[in-house]
Amino acid sequence: ARSSMSRVEVNKGAYLTSLLHALKYPSASVNGVLLGSRSKSGAEQTIMVEKAVPLLHAHIALAPMMDAAFALVEEYCKQNNTTIVGYYHANATHDQNRFTGQVSHSLALARRIADKIHETVKDTGGAGAEACAMIVDNNQLEILAINIQNRSSQNDGSSTGVTIHVKNNRDEWVAIDAKNHKIDGTSDGTAQAELLELVQKGAHQQLTDFDNHMDDCTKGWLTTSVVE
Amino acid sequence: QMSAQLEKLEEQLSLSSRDGKLLQTILTHLRNNRLRRPDLVMKCAVPLLSRGWLGNAQWDIREQLFLAALDLHKFDLANEQLEALSNRFPNSTRVQTLTGMQCEAEATSTPILALPEEQRSMKTEAAMNIYDRILEEDPCNVAASKRKVAALRSQGTEKAVRDATYTLNQYLNLYPTDMEAWKELADIYLEAQQLENARKALEEVVMLQPVNYLAHLKMAEVLYSLNDYPLARKYYAQSLELNPHANPRAAIGMVVCTAAMEGGKGRKGKGEAANVQLYDLSRSLLLDRYAKLPSTAPGAKVGNLVRKWLGAE
């Protein structure tokens, strides 16, 4: 059993992509898979999230598209020397953002999917492999939006709009506190400011997820990104 | 394709943002296709309405702008439209349901969320009271029934969702041929992960639209999620028969479905002849779809992954 929970480091692109996905479909739940790598230093493990791949914005409860998307993501991982390290989710209902304890239906579903990903990662990733979950908090996101629009001094990075979760010794998801995770560019607010810029440019409308690609195969997915 | 049309209109808009006819066309397109693009509505409706020559066309646009303003939490702008609509159409239940929506939207506004939990519900209750009052006088009022269901659904709590499905089922007793309502019911059940109930609702949809390939497709996806692969396969086959070449979702769904029936071994399993045939057929349809893409299309690269996955490299 692990004595300590993993650290998680999220790169700026993955952070921005997941939020842009949520912003493209404000009235729907959206989800995606996180790719990256794991590193170990002594007893401490760090999950490095390097890419967020948008998956669905409709009918998240339905399995076949998730299965198909995962098959393709796994091919991509093989070709690009990366691996699945987690799952992200943004809930449709504005004020239901809890991922732990008593949760709403759609977050219970998100938790099930995250559990499945965690199990698969554990089975295929070797000793100590595990997954993380990045959950968008709609209330935090709204506060963040107001702050960055006002260029308020409260934009000190404490508000990122997401909470990161890993499994503890009892196999429960728990939110990691600030000192055990890092999201590139958010501590000084530059990532949040970039998010505003991207939204103003309409990047969120140009983002494509797996659903978009299956509706229109000419649209890019997985191999393209609206964020550098 | 609808989204291609909208993209073209948006492009035109970026070139000439003051063309009154274009603005009206975009707003009409969004209304007719029930697309939710508050950003676009703002861009088009605000300048149009300020010009004052719309006459009776303004009311639909004001309603549309009202809804967009609610989405963007621009409550003053929304209220302006609501007042104009109330003055023009006093005693209208349609306007009353809009007032209900205003309460619903304000329920998740920042000042309300800052209130203690017990006080936050007052806005949502106000909305429900409006809908219930309309339904007391007119139990068959479609707009109020649907608004009530939507309001309950968006609350998301277990009780609210139960009430939503109850209300919607009552509505469907009155209007059993309302296909959109059956679809909505299926969606609510899916969100609550009540797949069996979703399936029953979708059976009604398929009955009402037996040649709609999307209805069969959705049914297939729900059955697959219920692990009923053989029946899912039948619906995938129906969907593909109705639309073989522009139906990648069904093709890919059939591939994973037949693969699941082979126990994940795909082609290499011994399996039933029909399963192998269906796997081969859907696999070709899918590969074909990617082969037909122009090589410059951003999506073409996904084709490489698909070919690798299906062993077609």
Description:
The complex is a heterodimer of chains A (228) and B (313). Chain A has 228 residues and is of the alpha/beta class. Chain A has helices at 12-24, 63-80, 105-124, 138-150, 190-201, 203-206, 210-215, and strands spanning 7-10, 30-41, 44-56, 83-90, 132-136, 162-167, 173-175, 181-183. Chain A is globular and about 45 Å long. Chain A starts with 6 loop residues before the first strand and ends in a 13-residue tail after the last helix. With 313 residues, chain B is mainly alpha-helical. Chain B contains 17 helices and no strands. The longest helix of chain B has 21 residues, at 117-137. The relative contact order of chain B is 0.04. The interface between A and B is large, with 42 and 49 residues.
Using the CA coordinates, give the radius of gyration of chain B. Answer: 24 Å
Q: Give the uncertain stretches of chain A in residue-range form.
A: none
State the order of secondary-structure elements of chain A, H for helix, E for strand. Answer: EHEEHEHEHEEEHHH
- What series of H and E elements makes up the topology of chain B? HHHHHHHHHHHHHHHHH
Helical stretch tally of chain A: 7
Largest sheet of chain A: 8 strands, mixed
Structural class of the secondary elements of chain B?
A: mainly alpha
Low-confidence stretches of chain B: none
Radius of gyration of chain A: 17 Å
Helix content of chain B: over 70%
Major β-sheet annotation of chain B: none
Describe the oligomeric state of these chains in a short phrase: heterodimer
In helices, the fraction of residues of chain A equals: 25-40%
Name the biggest interface: A-B, 42 and 49 residues
Tally of DSSP β-strands of chain B: 0
Decide which structural class fits the backbone of chain A. Answer: alpha/beta
Tell me what portion of residues of chain B adopts beta-strand conformation: under 5%
Head-to-tail CA distance between termini of chain B? 31 Å
Mean pLDDT of chain B: 91
Number of helices of chain B: 17
Strand order of the largest sheet of chain A: 7-6-5-4-2-3-1-8
